[in-house]
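Appendix B, record 7
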Amino acid sequence: MKLGVLLPTFRDDAEGAFVVASEAERAGLDGVFAFDHLWPMGSPRRPALAPFPVLAAIALRCPSLYVGPLVARVGLVATSKLVEQFTTLSALAPGRVIAALGTGDKLSEAEQVAYGLGHLAADQRRHLLGEAIDALAPLLSVWCGAGSAQTNQLARDRGVVINLWGAPPGAVRELSLSGEVSWAGPLGEDVEVTLGALEGAGATWAVAAAPLQLDAMRAWRRAH
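Structure tokens (predicted):
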């Protein structure tokens, strides 16, 4: 199972993200990821860095790491622009980009409405998701953020990875029966036990959210 971390990008500048990426690389981890939000959920007065410029800078600074948003929401930009962002990032980090995509939900609706982007119905967002997957899957490793049964089936029909957020190992195990599953979320206090359970359940990636415990992740990696 590969290990990654989510970068601290709800900041005024990218220095914290660069530091965490360098620490993750030194710890022998596999990748770093960035949220794709216009502001932190529920906190419209706080900053949020755009993921692709941060990931591009890290791709050049940390040549051993995979990079990707977690997840890039369809509908924030045109599908053609979204594909262009991924292919540009891939030109900087060939073979190291994960195109993680998602439809968004009610929790992210306020961001889009505030910026005049609107919020499409679920079936329209799934249509955009399918378009993006079809364009990117021949080029890059694609993850799809888990959602409704229809969204998960769309991902399975296209043979891409489904990414679960904060799900228990049992849910990972159940979904892994139909295809590849990655996991993201806080690891909790006993990092090594959680990572072992996720690997045993069939997760191919575990991406840790804050609070990060890189020493414990390094210890698990060295033992495995």
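Remarks on this record: The CA atoms of residues 47 and 75 lie 20 Å apart. The longest strand covers residues 203-208.
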